[in-house]
């Protein structure tokens, strides 16, 4: 038997959802305290974080890979979701550092892409000018 709704269901805002304790609480805590910092360190060691300086030159170690931007962006997204429910100054500083680093090295006409640096060709993936807009909330 199906249940009839008198009004259309509406999505919940992230600020109205809280998973604490039990199975998900343990996994969310592990993610915040262990996984996110470990991923940051792995990105740092591989050159993904420094690629956001946008100053790599041919012949230097750790040439930026086409997917570096996406890897770091996914990490920033994960940290952002974590920070929404569990403020953490250390994680917040790491994200701010990456954003500041990128802002200092970014060319105004370029998309935010770590492989878009001097001496490194993206070939058919070359960045084109874009206009960033805030998504509706």
Oligomer: single chain
**Poorly predicted segments:** 117-132
Number of strands: 0
Q: Main beta sheet: strand number and arrangement?
A: none
Report the radius of gyration as a whole number of Å.
19 Å
User: Which whole number gives the mean pLDDT?
Assistant: 77
The class by helix and strand makeup works out as mainly alpha
Strand content: under 5%
Q: Please report the number of helical segments.
A: 3
Topology pattern, helix = H, strand = E: HHH
Tell me, what's the shape? Answer: elongated
Helical residue percent band: 40-55%
| Distance from first to last alpha carbon | 35 Å
Overview of this protein structure:
With about 140 residues, the protein is mainly alpha-helical. It has a domain at about 70-120. The chain is about 45% helix and about 0% strand. The protein contains three helices and no strands. Helix 1 runs antiparallel to helix 2 (about 70-85). The two termini are about 35 Å apart. Mean pLDDT is about 75; it is low at about 115-130.
């Amino acid at each position: 038997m199906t249940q009839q709704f008198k009004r259309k269901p509406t999505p919940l805002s992230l600020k109205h959802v809280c998973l604490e304790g039990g199975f998900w609480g343990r996994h969310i805590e592990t993610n915040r305290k262990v996984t996110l910092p470990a991923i940051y360190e792995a990105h740092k060691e591989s050159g993904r974080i420094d690629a956001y300086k946008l100053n790599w030159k041919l012949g230097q170690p750790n040439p930026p890979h086409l997917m570096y931007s996406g890897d770091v962006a996914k990490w920033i997204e994960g940290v952002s979701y974590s920070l929404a429910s569990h403020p953490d100054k250390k994680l917040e500083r790491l994200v701010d550092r990456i954003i500041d680093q990128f802002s200092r090295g970014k060319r105004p006409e370029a998309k935010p892409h770590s492989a878009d640096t001097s001496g490194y060709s993206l070939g058919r993936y070359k960045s084109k000018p874009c206009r960033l807009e805030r998504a509706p909330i």
